[in-house]
Amino acid sequence: MIRLSDLQMKEVISVVDGRRLGFIVDLEIDVKTGKIVALILADRDSKGGFFSKAEEIQVLWKQILRIGEDVILVKESIDQRTLMLP
After folding, report:
1. What are the backbone dihedrals phi and psi of residue 7, each rounded to the nearest 5 degrees, phi first?
2. Sheet containing strand 20-29, strands side by side
3. Which of 7, 30, 73, 78 could bridge 66 with an S-S bond, Cβ 3.0-4.6 Å?
4. d(Cα 53, Cα 85) in Å, to the nearest integer?
5. What per-residue confidence (pLDDT) applies to 56?
6. 3-class DSSP state of 70
């Protein structure tokens, strides 16, 4: 079993291009099944303004290839920044 606080310490890395996507800030959970649907990351390249927060990246649970000791490896499709939220 792993805690959210443990997941938040791991950096999320894309295996497609080795890009560092960031760290987990939230989870999306299906309330009917109780299963995690997606990880929500703060976009490393987006800076939030004084009155706005940085954009978020949504990594679907099915995109996770491996959860290691220090990193989480994910596979994103090249045309996808859904991995991105609007």
Report:
1. -65, -40
2. 56-60, 36-42, 20-29, 11-14, 71-74, 64-67
3. 73
4. 13
5. 83
6. coil
Top CATH class of 4-74 equals mainly beta
CB burial class (10 A; 0-12, 13-18, 19+) of residue 76? buried
Whether 74 and 15 have beta carbons less than 8 Å apart is answered as yes
Q: Which is higher by pLDDT, 64 or 84? A: 64
Alpha carbon separation from 39 to 49, 50, 51, 68 (Å, rounded)? 23, 25, 24, 15
Written as six digits, the tokens of 27 are 């989870």
Global pTM value? 0.76
Q: What is the pLDDT of residue 9?
A: 94
**pLDDT tens, position by position, 23-82:** 999 999 999 999 999 999 986 655 555 555 567 888 999 999 999 999 999 997 544 444
Q: Tell me how crowded residue 71 is: count the other CB atoms within 10 A of its CB.
A: 13
